[in-house]
Amino acid sequence: MDFFTIIEKILGLLSVVFIFAIARIIYIVAFRPKGIPASEFKKVVQKIAKPELSKLGFHGNGWDFTKKEGELIYAFKFVPNSQGGWIHIDLYINTNIKQDYKGHTMEVVFKKMLTPKNKIQHAWHYHKTEKQNIAILNSILELFQEEGFAFFKKFEQYPECFLQMNNTDVDDYKKLNDTFSLNFSKAKWIEVLILINEKYANYKNALSLISAGKVLSEEETENWQNDFLYSKEEELMTFVNNEKNK
């Protein structure tokens, strides 16, 4: 292949990339929902949503609002779309359980998008007038008090509800997802339950959950997690042996 042929192919490739870039710009300009910028919608959030969330015990600035109850931190987070036009709401429950292992940070955080009942995803589009955007925020707050509070309520018995779970519960992890309105894999449930049980020194149950972890297929877990599970076994076995010798 001579020099000019190579140049011709490179120019052809660049022209394809250029065409795709132009098409993307046209799509964004033509089809992106019209309305005020996220920065302007944020001002309406501060004016309308912030005081209402404060009445419900959630405090913050900008897009994030939190409420602490016992050992849990409940969070309400506005998440603007990176390309503008709309926003969705994420609900978090942070347990403050975090552990670093071989460069990977494992933490127990429960997360759910705020949606109408029986919907998986939902977003709200910005509008041009303040009146319309106030109506959007009021609908968000109303839905939060219906569906968001129902999600948070599922964790009222924390941590006891998780300390009582064993590998039989993990086997039926889809039922756990239905119970807590989550979408965890079996591997994720095992990780979460082990971390919670370790946090509250419920070592016997953690050891049982490690046994459940050993039967996971490669498709259900990452190598780092297997390493983590096995690395804890000696520590937990020592605890169990000490219990037997008492």
SSE inventory with pairings:
Elements: H1 3-31, H2 38-55, E1 59-61, E2 64-69, E3 72-80, E4 86-101, E5 104-113, E6 124-125, H3 130-153, H4 160-163, H5 167-171, H6 173-180, H7 186-199, H8 203-214, H9 223-244
Antiparallel strand pairs: 1-2, 2-3, 3-4, 4-5, 4-6
What this model shows, in words?
This protein is of the alpha+beta class and 246 residues long. The chain contains nine helices and six strands; from the N terminus they run ααββββββααααααα. Strands 1, 2, 3, 4, 5 and 6 form a six-stranded antiparallel β-sheet that branches. The longest helix is centred in the first third of the chain and has 29 residues. The protein is flat. The model has no long low-confidence stretch (mean pLDDT 82).
- SS summary, helix count: 9
| CA-atom Rg in angstroms | 24 Å
Structural class: alpha+beta
Q: How far is it from the N-terminal to the C-terminal residue, by CA?
A: 80 Å
Strand content: 15-25%
Mean pLDDT level: 82
User: How many structural domains in the coordinates?
Assistant: 2
Annotation, overall tally of beta strands: 6
The low-confidence parts are: none
Helices and strands, in order, run as HHEEEEEEHHHHHHH
Could you give a short account of the major beta sheet?
Answer: 6 strands, antiparallel
Shape: flat
Q: How much helix is in the residues? A: 55-70%
